[in-house]
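Slide 14.
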Amino acid sequence: MTQREELATVLDRLAVDAVVTGYAIAVDDADWAGYRALFTPGGRADYRTAGGIEGPAAEVADWLARTMRRFPVRQHLIVNRRLRLDHLGGGAGDRAALRADYVNPMVFESAPEGPRGDDVPRRPAEPNFTTGGRYAFGLIRTEDGWRISSVVVQEKWRRTTL
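Slide 15: predicted structure.
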């Protein structure tokens, strides 16, 4: 591989990482327009192992918008990313597959708030719903940069404390 190809690969890795991070932030911040923008026009998402739905990203975004209202506090942690870039035509990557583990602590909307005193501001309760598992992302380079063509959630565990 030439230095130019190595540089292109590094830039692709950084760009794909930015898309996956954007995905987590969009879900955590309820930015459903931003979520939709991360996908290709035919992009799909599959949340069935987590009790959700599978379908076009726009429909899944609508489902997430309704479902995530139950969890006003949430924070995805996406780690252990393993990326494979497919180099088509001998050039820089055009397709990518990324597997990454996640932990997602959340707070139900009905959870009581934390301690309160006259001089202590309110703070959210401790997470009372936490899930973990693995994402399988398929990505494609488009004219607008890397986009998600598919994401499959493979929930492996969950813990609820109320």
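Speaker note: Helices lie at 3-28, 32-37, 57-67.
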